[in-house]
C-alpha cells in the first residue's frame, strides 16, 4: 500500500511539474506583449489586424472573380456585339430647300376655343385651362406652306419655332373640338418626333393638305429633294 501511495504521489508531482512548465512557456510566449503599459491592447490590435488581413485577402479574391465573370461573353452573344456601343448616333436630318414657298394658310388658334375657356374661367377648376388658352391665343401661330408646316411661339418665357417638311411626315391624327369648328392635330414625323397643334381651324382640310403635299413632293423629287451634305475634293 505504501508503494502504491508513493507511485500516485510521484505521478501527481510529475503532472504538476508538467503543468507549471506549460504555463511558463505560455507566459514566455506572451512576454513581448507585456513589457510596456498598454501592451495587451497592442497585442489584441495585432491579432485583429492579422484577422482583418485575411478578410481583405478573401475580399480581393472575390473581387477578382467578379471582374473575371464580367469579362466573360454571355451565352448566345459574340464579343463584337458585347463591345459595340448600345446607342447608335442618330442620322442627321436632311436639309430641304424652302425658297420660293407659297403660304397655304396661316393664323392663330381658333378664337372660339379662347372664348369658351374665358367663359368657363369663372370657375376655379377651369382657371388653369383658361390661362393655357390665353397663352395659345396670344403667343402661338400656325403656318402651312406648300412645302412645310410651322408652329411658332413668341411668349416672353418661351420662344421657339418648329418646322417640318411634308416629306418627313409619317402620320397625321386629328380630333374634333367645338362641334367640329376646330380641332387638335398631332403630326408624327419619321424620326419619332411629334408636333401638336391645339385648337386648329380647318383641321380636316389641313390634314388632307399635308398628306396630299407629302405624296406630291415625294413624286416630284426635284426641288424638294434633300441636299447632299457630302463634299468631295476640288
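Sequence proposed for the structure above (234 residues):
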Amino acid at each position: 500500500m505504501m508503494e502504491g501511495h508513493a507511485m500516485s504521489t510521484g505521478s501527481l508531482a510529475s503532472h504538476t511539474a508538467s503543468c507549471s512548465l506549460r504555463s511558463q512557456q505560455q507566459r514566455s510566449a506572451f512576454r513581448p506583449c507585456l513589457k510596456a503599459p498598454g501592451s495587451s491592447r497592442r497585442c489584441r490590435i495585432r491579432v485583429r489586424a492579422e484577422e482583418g488581413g485575411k478578410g481583405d485577402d478573401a475580399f480581393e479574391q472575390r473581387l477578382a472573380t467578379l471582374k473575371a465573370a464580367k469579362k466573360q461573353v454571355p451565352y448566345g452573344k459574340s464579343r463584337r456585339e458585347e463591345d459595340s456601343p448600345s446607342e447608335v448616333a442618330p442620322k442627321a436630318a436632311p436639309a430641304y430647300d424652302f425658297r420660293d414657298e407659297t403660304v397655304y394658310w396661316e393664323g392663330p388658334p381658333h378664337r372660339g376655343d379662347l372664348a369658351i375657356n374665358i367663359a368657363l374661367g369663372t370657375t376655379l377648376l377651369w382657371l388653369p385651362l383658361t390661362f393655357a388658352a390665353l397663352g395659345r391665343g396670344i403667343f402661338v401661330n400656325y403656318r402651312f406652306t406648300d412645302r412645310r408646316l410651322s408652329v411658332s411661339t413668341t411668349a416672353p418665357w418661351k420662344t421657339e419655332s418648329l418646322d417640318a417638311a411634308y416629306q418627313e411626315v409619317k402620320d397625321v391624327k386629328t380630333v374634333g373640338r367645338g362641334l367640329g369648328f376646330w380641332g387638335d392635330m398631332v403630326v408624327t414625323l419619321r424620326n419619332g418626333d411629334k408636333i401638336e397643334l391645339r385648337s386648329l381651324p380647318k383641321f380636316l382640310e389641313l390634314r388632307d393638305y399635308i398628306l396630299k403635299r407629302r405624296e406630291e413632293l415625294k413624286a416630284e423629287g426635284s426641288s424638294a429633294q434633300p441636299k447632299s451634305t457630302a463634299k468631295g475634293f476640288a
